[in-house]
Specification:
Keywords: Activator, DNA damage, DNA repair, DNA-binding, Metal-binding, Methyltransferase, Transcription, Transcription regulation, Transferase, Zinc. InterPro entries: Ada-like_dom_sf, Ada_DNA_repair_Zn-bd, Alkylbase_DNA_Glycosylase/TA, DNA_glycosylase, HhH-GPD_domain, Homeodomain-like_sf, HTH_AraC, HTH_AraC-typ_CS. With 499 residues, this protein is an alpha+beta fold. Helix content is 49%, strand content 11%. The protein has 4 domains: 74 residues, DNA Methylphosphotriester Repair Domain, CATH 3.40.10.10; 108 residues, Arc Repressor Mutant, subunit A, CATH 1.10.10; 91 residues, DNA-3-methyladenine glycosylase AlkA, N-terminal domain (TATA-Binding Protein, 2-Layer Sandwich); 174 residues, Endonuclease III, domain 1 (Orthogonal Bundle), CATH 1.10.340. It has a 5-stranded antiparallel sheet. A 4-stranded mixed sheet has the order 5-3-4-6. The longest helix is centred in the first third of the chain and has 19 residues.
């Protein structure tokens, strides 16, 4: 059969199967036939993949075609649910589904009153929705909805004068009580205290009853002679990048609260709509690991013998992060294939070389991508960086400065996309990428395959005769999903305790 399109005759490719066979395949949503034929629905004028989740019409209303070109030539349009156009371009349908879903939630979180309504809007089952969000966001669908509702509420509280109750209802919470409970769980303060961040130079966080800052201090002070952070009897001091300026914060923690104060530099000016207090709050939450779902980890341990045994040997940890993703990526590149002591030495040398000085005591801030991008490789090799590591670090910094790489945006999206984008950069492999996802972006279900310490910890935990390889590590960490970031941190801590 031929059809004329734009003056040329198109010859239709014959299909291997009968219409009855293909109809049964689409009723079963069989993915193995995607790319083998298309389902063209005469009544709606759309064409779909065989695996499309949409309700199927009667066979008499279907025409099967072999290629996308044939479907378009016959006047059929793409299905918005299964997106055959993405499939034929080699793009991930699930990946695009997640990205589009996240965009819809952020545009109007109150549109989705439940997980079921979210699944229905995506045209997939709740089981498929759970798999999709676990893979890309490392969260459950309910947790993702609550996170996005709280983020929307934070914006409304700062930029509007609505009553707190009205803000909660506007973003999709059913009651004032549920809004206050979720807000406190996510932000470690009340909505009213959050609103005060608009014009303030301090805030107080309410800490969980089981929180201890000890692990956070050990992580941030792994360089005992750090030039960019220190801990004394009054608390923890560190400089943060805030809207392009270095701002020194002081963090004092007592039994149940963390009080953060700061003073802006005289030259500080900004047109950013986000108040300084909001940005500092975001970074302090990361530094202390207060975004960690410790309660979820503990709840899972009640039904998971591996998690239960891990918590027995090393109590659940609030996983501290770097103040921004770039700082984590720098540490990961520095730490490639060297021990922790030498990595800390190189980090200190880098900060001394490129970190801007703040004040009169030689205190510095960790260099941003701008400072590192301005370096020449020989400046790093002069302070004992390898030639390749110097090139990797400067290359990543230049990618960020040029806009080719946006770490902050990657942190707000899909873990799958973030890992792939990082691994596309020269010198970045799975270990470096996943470490950055863990410590710089806050994804909760990462396994830094290739980590020597993790291999040793798993060998001891499972009492193996030898250290596992990469593939074995992936398998051994599966019982800890969806909390593999916490599990990895606990396994690392178990090594420290034994040493």
């Amino acid at each position: 059969m031929t059809v004329t399109t734009q003056g040329a005759a198109m010859k239709f490719k014959p299909l291997r199967w009968s219409d009855d066979f293909m109809y049964q395949a689409i009723l079963n949503h069989e993915q193995k036939y995607d790319g083998k034929f298309l389902t063209c629905v005469k009544s709606t004028g759309i064409y779909c993949l065989p695996s499309c989740p949409a309700r199927k019409p009667l066979l008499k209303n279907i025409r099967f075609l072999a290629t996308e070109q044939e479907a378009v030539a016959e006047g059929f349009r793409i299905c918005k649910r299964c997106r055959p156009d993405l499939f034929y371009r080699g793009e991930s349908v699930d990946e695009n589904l997640f990205i589009e879903m996240l965009s819809r939630i952020r545009t109007c979180p109150s549109s989705f009153t439940s997980v079921n309504s979210l699944a229905k809007s995506c045209g997939i089952s709740t089981t498929k929705l759970n798999e999709l969000i676990r893979l890309h966001a490392h969260l459950s669908p309910a947790d993702l909805l609550n996170r996005e509702r709280i983020n929307a509420a934070c914006i409304e509280l700062i930029h509007s004068s609505q009553r707190i109750l009205d803000v909660g209802l506007t973003v999709g919470f059913e009651s004032e009580a549920s809004f206050h409970r979720q807000f406190a769980a996510h932000m470690s303060m009340t909505p009213n205290a959050w609103r005060l961040l608009n014009n303030s130079n301090e805030f107080t966080l309410k800490l969980p009853d089981d929180f201890s800052p000890d692990y956070a201090w050990r992580y941030h002070l792994r360089d005992k002679e750090s030039l960019s952070e220190y801990l004394d009897e009054t608390g923890f001091t560190k400089a943060l990048w805030v809207h392009g300026y270095p701002v020194v914060i002081h963090l004092h923690i007592d039994e149940h609260t963390a009080c953060c104060r700061w003073t802006l530099p005289e030259e500080f000016t900004t047109n950013n709509e986000q108040p300084v207090g909001v940005e500092i709050h975001r970074q302090v939450m990361l530094l202390l690991g207060l975004n960690t779902d410790v309660q979820g980890f503990r709840s899972s341990a009640r039904q998971n013998k591996h998690m239960a045994r891990l918590i027995e040997s090393c109590s659940a940890i609030y996983v501290p992060m770097t103040a921004n993703p770039f700082e984590s990526l720098v540490w990961a590149i520095i730490g490639q294939q060297i021990n922790l002591t030498f990595a800390a030495t190189l980090r200190q040398a880098l900060i001394q070389l490129a970190g801007p000085v703040i004040g009169q005591n030689g205190f510095r801030i960790h260099p941003s991508a701008k400072e590192i991008a301005a370096l020449e490789p020989h400046q790093l090799t002069d302070i004992r960086f390898s030639q390749s590591k110097a090139q990797y670090l400067i290359g990543v910094a230049k990618a960020i400065v040029s806009g080719e790489l946006d770490l902050e945006q990657l942190a707000l999206g899909s873990a799958v996309v973030a890992e792939r984008k990082l691994c596309e950069l020269k010198g970045i492999g799975p270990w470096t990428a996943r470490y950055t996802l863990m410590r710089g972006m806050g994804f909760a279900d990462c396994v830094p395959v290739g980590d020597s310490g993790l291999y040793t910890a798993l060998q001891q935990f499972y009492q193996l005769d030898s250290r596992p390889n990469a593939a074995e590590t992936e398998q051994l960490m599966k019982p800890f999903s969806p909390f593999r970031t916490q599990a990895t941190t606990c396994l690392w801590e178990s090594l420290r305790k034994k040493s």
